[in-house]
Each structure stands twice: as C-alpha cells, then as structure tokens.
Amino acid sequence: MMKTRSSGKISTKWIPIFCISFFFIGMLFTNRLWEPPESDNKLIASHQQNEELKVICEDCGTKKKSKDDTDVMEEVSKTHESIKMLRSLDKSISMLQMELAASRGSNKELVHPRESVGTVIKQNGKPKKKVFVVIGINTAFSSRRRRDSVRESWMPQGEKLKKLEKEKGIVIRFTIGHSATSNSILDRAIDSEEAQHHDFLRLEHIEGYHELSAKTKIYFSTAVAKWDADFYVKVDDDVHLNLGVFASTLAHYRSKPRVYIGCMKSGPVLADKNVKYHEPEFWKFGEDGNKYFRHATGQIYAISKDLATYISINQPILHKFANEDVSLGSWFIGLDVEHIDERSMCCGTPPDCEWKAQAGNVCVASFDWSCSGICQSVEKMKFVHEKCGEGDDGVWGVSL
Predict the structure, then answer these.
(1) What's residue 285's pLDDT?
(2) Where is the protein found, in the record's own terms (predicted)?
C-alpha cells in the first residue's frame, strides 16, 4: 500500500520554484511601487517651476506697472513745479511793476537817469526820445484853417514848441496820412505846411472819413515807435485844450500802468442806416435800443504807455467798428484797464468853461456836444481861448 504525504508539509522540490517566483513577483512589486513617486516628483518639480515662473512674471508686471506709475507721478510733480515757478515769476513781475509805479509816483521822475525827459534811448536798434506825453491832433486835408486857429490859440509855435518838448517832455503834432493818389496836390500842400511849421506827424495811412478807426491804430503805433512816453493822447482839431492843466491831470495817474482817461459815455447803438453814426454791426450789441459799453468820447482821450504799446503790437487783429471812439473802447474790453472818467476833459464852451475858470476849476478841454467839437471853431477858437484859457504861461509853471 502506497504511503501518502502529510498535508502540513510541502515537497522540497517545489522550494526553488517558489523562491524564483517570489523573487520576480517582488521585483515586479518593487518597480510598480517606485514609479508613481518618481512621476509625482516630476509633476511637483514641474509645478514648482511653473509657480516660480508665474511669480517672476507677475513680479515683472508689477515692476513695470510700478515704473509707469512712478513716471506719471514724476511728470505730475514736474508740472506742479513749473506752475509754481510761473506763479512765482508772475508775482515777481507784479511786484517790480508796483515798485516802479511807486517810484514814479513818489519821485515824479522815471527810475533810471537815462530815461529822463529828452534822453535819446535805443529800442530794437532805433533811437527813441523819452518824453512825458505825445499829443496827436487829428486833422484832415481840408482843415488848414482849423489848424491855424489852433496854432493861434493854445498850441505853442516855433521855438516855443521845441522848448516845450525839451523842457517839459510835451510833444504836440498834427496827425495826418496821405491821399489815395501818390504825390497829389493834397500831399504837396501838407509838405509845404510842414516846411513852414514843423508840427506834423505823417502816418502810413490813406485818409478818409470812414477810416478813423484805422487811423487811430496807426497813430498810436507810429507814436510808440518814435517816442517813449508815459501817455499818448488823441484830440480833434476843433477842441480847445489847456496844456498846463492837462499835464497836471495826467501826472496824477503816472503811477498807474494801464489807464484810459477821458469823458466816459455810453451812447445808443444806432441801427438805422440813414443816421450819421450808424453802426453796421449793431446786432453784436444785443437787442434794438441797447447802448454801447462805456468808452471815452472821441473828441479827446489819453492812454498810458502800456495800452498804446498793446495797440501797436496787436494792431492787425484789433477790430474796427464804425465809430472810432467805440473801436478804441472795445480794444480794452477784457483787459485789466482802469477807466478814468475825467469830466474836466469835456467842458462846454463859454459860458460853461468860463464860469468854471472863474471858480478856480480851469477845464482841460472845451467843446460843444451839439457839434462834436467847437461849433464854427475857425472863428470861435480864439474867443474860447480868451475866456477859458489858463494863460499863455500856464504850462511853463507845471512841474512834471
């Protein structure tokens, strides 16, 4: 009978087979066990690298944005500094103007000795004589008799005219342009009159009644180029003037840089084409029946040096209205200009100016409102001078 193997024992011949099998199983298990960590490490390393790159990129963007913000702030800071510098410069200029004005007002003389009356100074290479006031008497080709009536009354002649300019700094000239025809008989007549009296200021202007606004611009520009004056005056050739009183009146405003002095008024804007002072641009002044802005009447007015210079510089773009006095007033609208309503510059003819003179209030200028000048001035100018004049020696006693 065959002997059976015990159930608790394994045959020795299977041991090598089991060992080899377990070895390979172990190797297989070992390989599978280590692969995932290796893959995870790669993923972790890759993830960490991406995160680092992301941080670096974000940092670059942050730095760029920060740099842009810094540049903007620097530009803003520079702009603020520029504004502060401009304000400081403007304040310094204002202070210098105030100091100059104060010096003029207290000393009654210009600050620099070279700028005393009669001194010839150069500006842009051109000689200019320093004076107190330039008085331009507006005249026309047909007004020879009016000019003679002025010469025979309030306007000094010959050597006295030169002395007035040299000692007092008061320049007086008849202002006139040219005719439309070159070297016409009208121009030759003025040339002859100038050779006799030496009291004209010829303008580069074609004379015409409807060209008074243009003539005014050219007069101020020409006067500014020729003389360095504190004041520039326009007066019509049918107005009586007391030079001494006028010079004293102007001297009161010598410390003010931008003054516009005259008899201020505000007349109606005339839309009717059939009236004398018709304003073609009446619609610019609002509804029918409106009045003009305040401006000095055209018979006589004075402006300070700064305003005359302003007209000279901006002459090409200054608008001309139908009436010369309105045009002048419009040029100062919007500017920092002080309007001086000087009523002594618009007295009436005798008995008005005579009564005032007897009361000790001698008028600067006299004329008739009804005629926009002295009515029949050729015949009456001497009469007005006798009744309302300050006396032939009045201007020589004035201290400027």
Answers:
(1) 85
(2) Golgi apparatus membrane
